[in-house]
Amino acid sequence: TARSYGDHLRLYDAQMLKNMTYALIDMAIELRLRLGLLDDTFTLKLDSTNHEQSGKKIEGAEMNYKGQWGLDSLLAFDELGFQYWVETRKGAAFTSNGAAEVIDAVLRRLPRKVKRDRGVAESGFCNNAFFRGNFTAGARFIWAVRSVMYRRLLARVTHWAEAEKSLLHDG
Predict the structure, then answer these.
(1) DSSP 86-119
(2) Which pTM value belongs to this model?
(3) 99-155 per-position pLDDT tens digit
(4) How far is CA 159 from CA 78, 131, 140, 154, in A?
(5) Could you say which of 18, 110, 118, 119 would form a disulfide bridge with 114 (CB–CB 3.0 to 4.6 Å)?
(6) Cα separation of 93 and 73, whole Å?
(7) CB 102 within 8 Å of CB 125
(8) Any residues with CB less than 8 A from the CB of 140 and at least 6 apart, and which?
(9) Which residues, 6+ apart, have CB-to-CB distance to 169 below 8 Å?
(10) In the chain, what are the helix, strand and coil shares in percent, each to the nearest 5?
């Protein structure tokens, strides 16, 4: 029943859930290692997703900025699709809440030989916590820019280097 399912879920305290999340990171790194895919580069991709709900008695469900009733999740994947983080949050959580912890927890667990090449996220992560988290964890290239910001920042770039291959997503 729903009640017994809820009672079961409440057996897990916050620290146990956090430890399970850290175990997910370790398992993903181990999988890449065993498959021979833990090369010398690594791209961490963060995403926040709304999960619209239809029930009215869902713990943590709130109205988000789009006016949708639901929960939210914070997810992290690598460039190969391995998942490193999943965290369910209240529905009105701001996109980047908790991003610094994710970046720190994932990138610091990587073997030293692996270059933390990129931190990539949608524009909702464009804030100091996201950039600082990537910088302190050793990421070499970080991308999360709001469209209203990049035009005025382009003038500040002084050393342009022609890219051999550029990929554009969403314009």
Answers:
(1) EEEEETT--TTTTHHHHHHHHHTTS-TTSEEEEE
(2) 0.76
(3) 989 998 998 899 888 887 788 888 888 888 888 888 888 777 677 666 666 666 667
(4) 28, 20, 16, 11
(5) 110
(6) 9
(7) no
(8) 115, 116, 117, 118
(9) none
(10) 35, 25, 40
